[in-house]
Write a structure and sequence with these properties.
The chain has 8 helices and 12 strands. The strands form 2 sheets. The protein has an 8-stranded mixed beta sheet. A 4-stranded antiparallel beta sheet has the order 7-8-9-10. Strand 2 and strand 3 form a beta hairpin. Helix 1 runs antiparallel to helix 2 and helix 2 packs antiparallel against helix 3. The longest helix is centred in the first third of the chain and has 23 residues. It is globular, with a radius of gyration of 17 Å. Bound molecules: aspartic acid (ASP). The site of aspartic acid (ASP) has 14 residues, from strand 8. Aspartic acid binds next to strand 8.
Length: about 300
């Protein structure tokens, strides 16, 4: 049973702010990402390639807060982060504090494949990207009037997250993988790192349990070690995937004040998409099925 699930972030627009046209654009973006990953799984490709392709598709869509659509830092720059994990051997790659790299998830994958290190930050990560000929884009590519407006609003409120992206998959061979990518929080301090690039907090995959990608208030997901906790509840407490996701997202995170959600797939191909926020852009597709997408 192969399957893929994606998210485009918790903390969605209020229903009344979402016109039918915009809603359809979001759903279409999710379907495109699902299909980018699914077509790899369908041709018996690897879960690792499928999650990378799905996340790269969302990074190229300016509706989502990752890659092209990344939010602004307080200094009116973009600092992106991403991670990817292979459940078959627990190998992983991660990057944070990077600027101008078109697809942060591809850089994370390149770190996984080619670096002796697992996690690269800032200039060192960008140098590694150049050495490996990954595409860069000028600042303009990441600019959007809407994101700039969000920064101005956010200056009088607390830093806000919306639209981080992620994917989890199980392939034909039963291997699991997860990937997450984000621009972080609007109006964040430069140098702030969230949960998305942290293995165990925002991303985790293990063939003996499940693959997880999180979205929400990063600081809380780090404190809860949320992605790994879901896996650990399967491994050590014998909870089902649904019970584990509900425990972490609906009980443990709210208890410390954390808002957000997670998508997860287990070794039987069960998919869960649980959130405690007003919604989560999300969708999945299982072997021989059609894509299923939703927001609220
Ligand atoms: N988790 C992300 C962060 O804290 C934000 C989000 O998921 O929207 O950077």
């Amino acid at each position: 049973m192969y399957a893929i699930a994606v998210h485009g972030g918790a903390g969605v627009k209020e229903r009344k702010e979402l016109s039918p046209e915009l809603e359809e654009r979001y759903l279409q973006g999710l379907r495109q990402a699902i299909n980018a990953g699914y077509s790899i799984l369908e041709s018996r490709g690897r879960a690792l390639d499928a999650v990378e392709a799905a996340v790269a598709s969302l990074e190229n869509n300016d509706l989502f807060n990752a890659g092209k659509g990344s939010v602004f830092t307080a200094d009116e720059t973009h600092e992106m982060e991403a991670s990817i994990m292979n459940g078959s051997n627990l190998d992983a790659g991660a990057v944070c504090g990077i600027r101008n790299v078109r697809n942060p998830v591809r850089l994370a994958r390149t770190v996984l494949e080619k670096s002796i290190h697992l996690f690269l930050a800032g200039r060192g990560a960008e140098k590694f990207a150049r050495e490996n000929n990954l595409p860069f884009e000028p600042d303009d590519y990441f600019y959007s009037a809407e994101r700039y407006q969000q920064l101005r609003v956010s200056k009088i409120l607390k830093p806000q997250g919306t639209g981080t992206v992620g994917a989890v998959a199980i392939d034909f061979s039963g291997n699991l993988a997860a990937a997450t990518s984000t621009g972080g929080l609007t109006n964040k301090n430069y140098g702030r790192v969230g949960d998305s690039p942290l293995i165990g907090a925002g991303t985790y995959a293990n063939n003996s349990t499940c693959a997880v990608s999180c979205t929400g208030d990063g600081e809380y997901f780090i404190r809860a070690v949320a992605a790994y906790d879901i896996s650990a509840l399967l491994e050590y407490s014998g909870l089902s995937l649904r019970e584990a996701c509900e425990k972490v997202i609906l009980e443990k995170l709210p208890a410390i004040g954390g808002e957000g959600g997670a998508i997860a797939v287990d070794i039987e191909g069960n998919i869960e998409m649980i959130f405690n926020s007003n919604g989560m852009y999300r969708g999945y597709r299982k072997e021989n099925g059609a894509p299923v997408v939703s927001i609220y």
